[in-house]
Write a structure and sequence with these properties.
Chain A: It is a peripheral membrane protein. The complex is a heterodimer of chains A (about 725) and B (about 400). Chain A has 26 helices and three strands. Chain A has about 725 residues and is mainly α. In chain A, helix 2 packs parallel to helix 16, helix 19 crosses helix 20 and helix 25 packs antiparallel against helix 26. Classes of the chains: A mainly alpha (about 725), B alpha+beta (about 400).
Chain lengths: ~725, ~400
C-alpha cells in the first residue's frame, strides 16, 4: 500500500481502476515518505494490496501483527480468488446487454478532464521518481487492448476485455513478485508496519486535528470498497483513460464551456469536473436502471478524486480535501424544482383519496423534458419511501421519511364537506409531501435512483399496495422496534470510533430536545389560535359596548377599538399558521429525520454485528483447525483450512461492509447536519420575518387608533 | 411573606381608572403593603391641610377587611343614598401565584436549575403584578372618597384614615353573611317589584335603560377581555417555555442552533404586553363594571324612594278618605317627597359627573394602552429585526467558513 514508488504501469492502472480512490491519501503518504527504499518488485504486490482495499489498512494488518509470515500470502490469494470471479461473471452479462455506444459517446468528455488532471498533477510532483515516459508507458497498452479485441463491436466489448487484460496483468505480475515479495515482505515487514501506522494516522489523526473529522477517512474507505465489491464499475471508469488517449487529448478542453456556469467557485476546474462527471453518469443512467445504481456509486468517489491531485501537492492533504468536500456539499444543489400543488379529491366515500399534482422543473439531462407533471396519491409517496429504504437503507443511506399516515385526518377529508379543519389537514399534508420530495431529490444519491425518477416522470405508477398496513409512523415504529430489539439482544457494541459515539449521543439528545420543543410550539400554536378566537369575541363585545355608549366620541373610539381588535385577531391567526408551518412542521420533520438517522446508526450496528459474528466464527474454525493439527488428522485439516479461508473471506467482506456503511453513515450524517443547519436557518429567518411583519402591522393598527382615542372629549 | 415597596414604582404611570381632582387638601396614597399569608396589610398614608385632622401627615396600617367596613358603613348611611358610593375593592386574590408556587415547589426536583430559576422569576413577576393591582384598587377606593366633596367630610372615613390602632372590625360571621345574602335577595325582588312603578323623570328613565344595557355589555366585554388576556398570557408562557427549550437545545448543540437562542429574547416582551393589557384595559372595564353597579344601586335607592313616595301618597289619600291620621300621613308623605326630591337631585348630579368621569377615564386608559401597545410592538420589532440580522449574519459567517475563509 505504500505508494512511495510509482511503478508505472501499475500506477496507471491504479489511476484507471480507481479514478476515485482517495488519491489524496496516497499522495499524502507518498509525499511524506518520498524516497522509495524498496526494490521495484515489492511495489506491485503492495500496490495490489492497496488496490485490494481496506484489509491492507486495518483487517489484515491486525492479523499480520500476530503472525506476519503465514498471512502475508493471504492478500494475494484474495486477489486471485475473489475479484476475478466477480469481474467475469457480473460485468459481462451486465455490460454486454446494454447499449454501450451512448456511454462511450458521453463519457469521454468529463473523464478526459479528469484524466488529464490525474496525469498532469502527479507529473508536476516531480519529487517522485515518476517521469513522463514512464507514464506513457502504459498508454500503448491501454490503446492496444481494445484494438486487439477480436470482436467487431469495439465499443461494446472493450470494457470486458480490458478487464480480462487487467486480470491477466494481475495474474502475471503479482505472481512473479509474490515469490519474491514474501521474502521481501518479511524483510520489509517492520517497515510495512511502520507504513501501516502512518496510514492509520492519516486516517485517524486528521479527524482529530481538523474540525470536520469524517471526511478524510470517509470517501477513501468508500472508494475502496466500492471498487472492490462492484467491479462492474470498473469497465465504465476504465473507458476514460482509453478514450482520452485515443481521441480526447485534443478535444479535452471542449466540454468545459458547457459547465462554465459554475465557474464562480474557487477552483473551478475541479468542481466543474464534478458536474461533468455527474452529468455523464446521469446520461448513462438513462440506459439501464440497473447500472445506474452502480454508476451513482461511482460518481461519489470520482467526485472526491479531482480534489485529490491538488491536495496531494501539499502536505495538508486532509484539510484541503476537507474544504473541497465541504464546498462540494454546499454546492450540491441540483437544478431541480419540485412543487406539489392542487390537492384534489378523487372518488367518493371511503375509497376517495387525495391526488396531488407533482410538478418538476429541471435542467438535468437525466430527465426527458424540462418540465413535467404527474398526479400522485399519498400512498404513492409512501411506496416510494419503501422502495428507497428497501434498496438503500442497508447501505447506511439516510432516507427522508415521508409524513405520517393519518387515518383520522383522511377520514375527515373523505367524509367531510369543506370544513376548515380538513382543508388545513390537506394543506399541511401537501406541504409535508413537498418537503419530503424535495429532501429526497436533494440527496445526490437518491436522486439517481430509478424509482425516484419514475416517480417524478412516469404517468402511471403501479399502485403501492403494501403501504396500507405499514406506512409512515407505523412503519417507522415497527422498524425502530425491530432494530431496537435486535440491538438490545446483541451485546453492546464497543464503539471504537469516538465520532460515532458522540454523534449517537448527540442525535438522541437532540431528538429529545426537539420533541420537547415541538410540544411547546404546538401548545403555542393552540394558544395563539385561542387568543385569536378570544380577540375576535372581545372585538364583537367591544363593538356592542360602543353601540350602547352614549358619548359619541367614546362610542366611535370603541367601535374603532373593535375594528383594531378584529384586525389583530387576523394577525394572530396568521401568526398561528406561521408558527405552525414554519416552526412546528419543521420540528416535526426533523424529529422524523432524526429517527431515520438513528435507523442509519442501527444499520451500521447491524453490519458491525455481522462482522463480529463472522470474526467469532473464524476464531472457532481456527481453534478447530488447531485441534485437528494437534490430533494430527490431515484429511480433515484441508477441509478446516478451506473453511478458514472461507470465513476469512467473509470476515474481510463483512468488515469492508462495515467500513463502507460507517463511511456512508458518517457522510450522510454530516450531510444531514448541514442540511439541518441550513433548513433551520432558513426557517428561523422566515419565522422572524413573519414575526417582524406582524409587529409592524400591529404598530400600524395601534398608531391609527391613537388619534381616535385622543379625540374622545 | 413578601414586602414590596411601591416607592420605586411611584413614578410609573398609575393605572388610575378614575379621574380624580387632585386638590392638595387631602392626599391619600398607599406607599407600602405587607403580605402575610392571606392577609394584606396596607400602609395608608395621608397628607392633609384640613383642620378636621389632628396632624397634617400620618399613616396607619389597614387591612382589606377595614376597607370593606368603611364601604359598608357608608352604604348604610342614610344621607348618602343619593350619591354613587365608590365600589368596594375586591378581595386580594393571590390564589393563582400561590398555586403556581406550590407547583414549582413540587416540580423542583424534576427541573433543571435554569428552568427552576426561570420559573421562579416568572412567578415573582406575576406575584408582583397581582400585588400591585391589589394595592392600586385599594388606593383608588380611598382616593374616590377623598376627592368627593361630601364623603371626605365623613366621620368614619376620617377615623379610618387617622386612628392608628386596629379598628377591630371582624370578618363577617356566618349570620351576617347570610343576612347580606338575604338582603341582596330582597333587593333584587324589590327591584322587580318597583320596576312597575312609573318613572316620573325622563332623565332617570333614560339613565336607567342606558345603565342596564351598558352594564350587561360592559360585563360581557370584561369577561371577554379577561379571557383574551388570559390566552395572551398563555402565549407568553409558551414563548417562555420555548425559549427555555431552545436554550437547552442550543446548549447541547454547538453549531446549528446557536442563533435561534436570540428568538427567545422576544418572548419576555409578550409577557409584558399581556400584563399591561390586563392592567389597562381589563382593569378599566372591571372597575367600571363595579362602578356601574354602584350607579345602579343609586338608581335603585332612588327608585325605592320613589316607590316610598308613591306609597306615602297613597297612604295620605287613604287617610284623607278615612278622615283620620291625616296629619301623620301628610307628614309622612312630605318626608318621602322631600327625600325623593333630594335623592333625584343629587342622583342627577352624580350620574352626570359619573358619565363625564367615565369618558375621561376611558380616554386616558385607551390612550395609555395604545401607547403601550405601540411601544411594545416597536420594541419587539426592533428585537426581531436584530435577531433577524443576527441570524443572517451567522449564516453569512457559516457560508464564509464553509468556503474556507
Amino acid at each position: 500500500m505504500s505508494l512511495c514508488h510509482f511503478y508505472p504501469s501499475l500506477v496507471i492502472k491504479f489511476f484507471r481502476v480507481c479514478v476515485c480512490v482517495c488519491v489524496e491519501l496516497k499522495m499524502a503518504a507518498s509525499s511524506e515518505r518520498s524516497p522509495p527504499p524498496f526494490p521495484d518488485s515489492e511495489e506491485p504486490e503492495l500496490l495490489e494490496d492497496s488496490d485490494e482495499g481496506a484489509d491492507a489498512f486495518t483487517g489484515t494488518s491486525i492479523s499480520e501483527m500476530d503472525s506476519p509470515s503465514p498471512d502475508s500470502t493471504r492478500p494475494p490469494k484474495d486477489i486471485f480468488n475473489e475479484p476475478p470471479e466477480d469481474i467475469f461473471s457480473d460485468p459481462l452479462s451486465n455490460i454486454n446487454s446494454e447499449p454501450q455506444k451512448k456511454v462511450d459517446a458521453k463519457i469521454p468528455s468529463p473523464s478526459s478532464d479528469e484524466a488529464v488532471d490525474l496525469f498532469s498533477d502527479p507529473l508536476d510532483d516531480d519529487s517522485e521518481v515518476m517521469s513522463s515516459p514512464e507514464v506513457q508507458n502504459p498508454m500503448p497498452d491501454l490503446l492496444n487492448e481494445p484494438v486487439e479485441a477480436p470482436k467487431s463491436d469495439v465499443l461494446g466489448e472493450p470494457p470486458v476485455h480490458r478487464d480480462a487484460a487487467r486480470q491477466q496483468d494481475v495474474f502475471e505480475d503479482p505472481p512473479k513478485s509474490s515469490s519474491k515479495s514474501s521474502s521481501v515482505k518479511k524483510a520489509a515487514s517492520s517497515e510495512m508496519f511502520g507504513d501501516d501506522d502512518d496510514d492509520e494516522d492519516l486516517f485517524k489523526e486528521p479527524p482529530k486535528v481538523v474540525t470536520k473529522k469524517p471526511q478524510p477517512s470517509g470517501p477513501p474507505v468508500d472508494v475502496f470498497t466500492e471498487v472492490k465489491s462492484d467491479v462492474k464499475v470498473k469497465p465504465q471508469v476504465k473507458d476514460d483513460p482509453t478514450d482520452l488517449f485515443a481521441e480526447e487529448a485534443l478535444t479535452a478542453p471542449a466540454p468545459k464551456p458547457s459547465a462554465g456556469s459554475s465557474s464562480s467557485r474557487t477552483n473551478g476546474v475541479h468542481s466543474e469536473e464534478q458536474d461533468l462527471f455527474s452529468e455523464a453518469t446521469v446520461e448513462l443512467s438513462l440506459d439501464s436502471p440497473r447500472n445506474d445504481r452502480k454508476n451513482k456509486d461511482a460518481v461519489k468517489p470520482s467526485v472526491s478524486a479531482p480534489a485529490a491531485p491538488v491536495a496531494s501537492s501539499s502536505s495538508k492533504a486532509p484539510s484541503k480535501t476537507l474544504k473541497e468536500l465541504e464546498e462540494e456539499e454546499s454546492e450540491d444543489k441540483f437544478d431541480l424544482n419540485i412543487s406539489i400543488t392542487n390537492p384534489e379529491k378523487v372518488g367518493d366515500g371511503m375509497n376517495a383519496y387525495m391526488a396531488y399534482k407533482v410538478s418538476t422543473q429541471t435542467s438535468l439531462t437525466m430527465f426527458r423534458s424540462k418540465t413535467f407533471t404527474v398526479r400522485r396519491r399519498f400512498s404513492d409517496f409512501l411506496g416510494l419511501f419503501e422502495k428507497l429504504s428497501e434498496k438503500h437503507s442497508q447501505n447506511g443511506y439516510l432516507i427522508p421519511p415521508p409524513p405520517e399516515k393519518s387515518i383520522l385526518g383522511m377520514t375527515k377529508v373523505k367524509v367531510g364537506k369543506e370544513d376548515p379543519s380538513s382543508a388545513e389537514f390537506v394543506e399541511r399534508r401537501r406541504a409535508a409531501l413537498e418537503r419530503y420530495l424535495q429532501r429526497v431529490v436533494s440527496h445526490p444519491s437518491l436522486l439517481q435512483d430509478p424509482d425516484v425518477r419514475e416517480f417524478l416522470e412516469k404517468e402511471e405508477l403501479p399502485r403501492a399496495v403494501s403501504t396500507q398496513a405499514l406506512s409512515g409512523a407505523g412503519f417507522l415504529k415497527m422498524l425502530n422496534k425491530a432494530t431496537d430489539a435486535v440491538s438490545k439482544m446483541t451485546i453492546k457494541m464497543n464503539e471504537q470510533d469516538v465520532w460515532f459515539d458522540e454523534k449517537i449521543q448527540d442525535v438522541e439528545n437532540e431528538e429529545q430536545h426537539l420533541r420537547k420543543l415541538h410540544v411547546m410550539v404546538e401548545s403555542l400554536v393552540n394558544h395563539r389560535k385561542e387568543l385569536s378566537g378570544n380577540t375576535a369575541v372581545f372585538a364583537k363585545s367591544v363593538a356592542m359596548l360602543g353601540s350602547s355608549e352614549d358619548n359619541t366620541a367614546l362610542s366611535r373610539a370603541l367601535s374603532q377599538l373593535a375594528e383594531v381588535e378584529d384586525r389583530i385577531e387576523q394577525l394572530h391567526q396568521e401568526q398561528a399558521s406561521n408558527d405552525f408551518f414554519t416552526f412546528s412542521e419543521l420540528l416535526a420533520d426533523y424529529i422524523r429525520l432524526l429517527g431515520a438517522v438513528r435507523g442509519c446508526f442501527d444499520q451500521r450496528m447491524k453490519a458491525w454485528q455481522r462482522w463480529q459474528d463472522a470474526e467469532n466464527m473464524l476464531q472457532k474454525k481456527r481453534e478447530a483447525e488447531a485441534k485437528l493439527l494437534w490430533a494430527n488428522k490431515p484429511d480433515k485439516l484441508q477441509q478446516a483450512k478451506d473453511e478458514i479461508t472461507e470465513w476469512e473471506a467473509k470476515v474481510t467482506q463483512y468488515e469492508r461492509e462495515f467500513e463502507r456503511i460507517s463511511a456512508t453513515v458518517r457522510k450522510e450524517v454530516i450531510r444531514f447536519d448541514k442540511e439541518k443547519a441550513r433548513d433551520f436557518n432558513r426557517q428561523v429567518i422566515k419565522y422572524l420575518e413573519s414575526l417582524l411583519h406582524s409587529q409592524q402591522q400591529l404598530i400600524k393598527y395601534w398608531d391609527a387608533f391613537l388619534p381616535e382615542a385622543k379625540a374622545i372629549v | 411573606m413578601t414586602s414590596i415597596s411601591e416607592d420605586s414604582d411611584k413614578e410609573k404611570v398609575r393605572s388610575v381608572s378614575v379621574d380624580l381632582n387632585n386638590d392638595a387638601s387631602l392626599v391619600i396614597d398607599i406607599p407600602d403593603a405587607l403580605c402575610e399569608r392571606d392577609k394584606v396589610k396596607f400602609t395608608v398614608h395621608t397628607k392633609t391641610t384640613l383642620s378636621s385632622f389632628q396632624k397634617p401627615e400620618f399613616s396607619v396600617p389597614r387591612q382589606h377587611e377595614e376597607f370593606i367596613w368603611l364601604h359598608d358603613t357608608i352604604v348604610e348611611t342614610e344621607e348618602y343614598a343619593g350619591l354613587i358610593i365608590p365600589p368596594a375593592p375586591p378581595k386580594p386574590d393571590f390564589e393563582g401565584p400561590r398555586e403556581k408556587m406550590h407547583k414549582l415547589g413540587e416540580g423542583e426536583s424534576s427541573m433543571t436549575k435554569e428552568e427552576y430559576a426561570k420559573m421562579k422569576q416568572e412567578l415573582e413577576a406575576e406575584y408582583l403584578a397581582v400585588f400591585k393591582k391589589t394595592v392600586q384598587v385599594h388606593e383608588v377606593f380611598l382616593q374616590r372618597f377623598s376627592s368627593h366633596p361630601i364623603f371626605r367630610k365623613d366621620r368614619n372615613f376620617q377615623i379610618f384614615l387617622e386612628y392608628d390602632q386596629d379598628l377591630s372590625v371582624r370578618r363577617k360571621n356566618a349570620k351576617e353573611m347570610f343576612g347580606g345574602f338575604f338582603k341582596n335577595m330582597v333587593k333584587s325582588a324589590d327591584e322587580v317589584l318597583i320596576s312597575g312603578v312609573k318613572e316620573v323623570d325622563e332623565f332617570f328613565e333614560q339613565e336607567k335603560t342606558f345603565l342596564l344595557d351598558y352594564s350587561s355589555k360592559i360585563k360581557d366585554a370584561t369577561a371577554k377581555a379577561e379571557k383574551m388576556t388570559r390566552s395572551h398570557k398563555n402565549v407568553a408562557d409558551d414563548y417562555n417555555h420555548i425559549s427555555g427549550a431552545l436554550n437547552s437545545t442550543a446548549a447541547d448543540n454547538n453549531t446549528a442552533f446557536k442563533k435561534t437562542i436570540s428568538v427567545c429574547v422576544l418572548q419576555k416582551l409578550e409577557d409584558r404586553v399581556a400584563s399591561d393589557q390586563e392592567l389597562k384595559l381589563t382593569e378599566l372595564l372591571r372597575y367600571y363594571t363595579r362602578d356601574i353597579q354602584a350607579a345602579k344601586d343609586l338608581l335603585y335607592r332612588r327608585a325605592r324612594a320613589l316607590a316610598d313616595n308613591e306609597n306615602s301618597n297613597k297612604a295620605l289619600d287613604k287617610a284623607r278618605l278615612k278622615g283620620k291620621d291625616i296629619a301623620q300621613a301628610e307628614e309622612n308623605q312630605k318626608q318621602c317627597l322631600q327625600k325623593f326630591d333630594k335623592l333625584s337631585e343629587s342622583g342627577k348630579k352624580e350620574l352626570t359627573s359619573f358619565k363625564a368621569r367615565r369618558v375621561v377615564a376611558f380616554r386616558k386608559n385607551l390612550i395609555e394602552m395604545t401607547e403601550l401597545e405601540i411601544k411594545h410592538a416597536k420594541v419587539r420589532r426592533l428585537k426581531s429585526n436584530n435577531t433577524l440580522y443576527g441570524s443572517k449574519l451567522s449564516i453569512f459567517l457559516l457560508c464564509q467558513k464553509s468556503l474556507g475563509y
